[in-house]
Amino acid sequence: MELTERLVEARKARGLSQADAAERLNVSRQAISRWETGVGTPSLDSLIQMSQLYGVSLNELVYGPETAQPREEMTEPEAQPECPAVREPHRRRTALLATVLAFAAAGILGLGTWIGFGIAGAREEAEIPWGDLIAEETMTTKGEFDLLPWE
């Protein structure tokens, strides 16, 4: 049975004319006629209102009385053991990823240490030993000595 036939049957079972149903649903009589002849399709809101007006469930109105019965509870499929052939590549991939990450972390740590000592060594080289400086005999206008490294 089609939706159009179920709409007509449900309306007539309640003893309503198209005009009565249209008035209670706040639609035109032509809308009811289009839905019942299949020219148009009612919106979900209209279907819900019709199911309440006609005293049938929405499921029964849309799908018919034979499908309106509650279905048996569906059971979950039994868990099937994973195939070792499928699981093994996953483990290999995980182990490889862990190894690559460990080497990357060690490399970054080593690089950071090397750069750190390089910067510290550069600071020591950049310092001018004060004992090797001599004073020029010429004085600046402010009376200060210019210090130059011994060559």
Strand content: 5-15%
Strand order of the largest sheet: 1-2
Tell me the distance between the termini.
110 Å
Report the principal-axis shape. Answer: elongated
Order of helices and strands: HHHHHHEE
Radius of gyration: 45 Å
Please tally the helical runs, counting DSSP H or I stretches of 4 or more residues. 6
E-strand count: 2
Unreliable parts: none
Mean pLDDT: 77
What's the main sheet like?
2 strands, antiparallel
Structural class: mainly alpha
Helical residues, percent: 55-70%
Walk me through what this model shows.
This protein is 58% helix and 8% strand. With 151 residues, it is mainly α. Helix 2 crosses helix 3 (29-37). The chain starts with a helix and ends with a strand. The model has no long low-confidence stretch (mean pLDDT 77).
Quick overview of this protein structure:
The protein is 58% helix and 8% strand. It is mainly α and 151 residues long.
Blueprint of the fold:
Layout: H1 3-13, H2 18-25, H3 29-37, H4 44-54, H5 58-63, H6 84-126, E1 133-139, E2 145-149
Helix pairs in contact: 2-3
Provide the descriptors you would attach to this structure in a database record.
two-stranded antiparallel sheet, mainly alpha, 8% strand, single chain, 151 residues
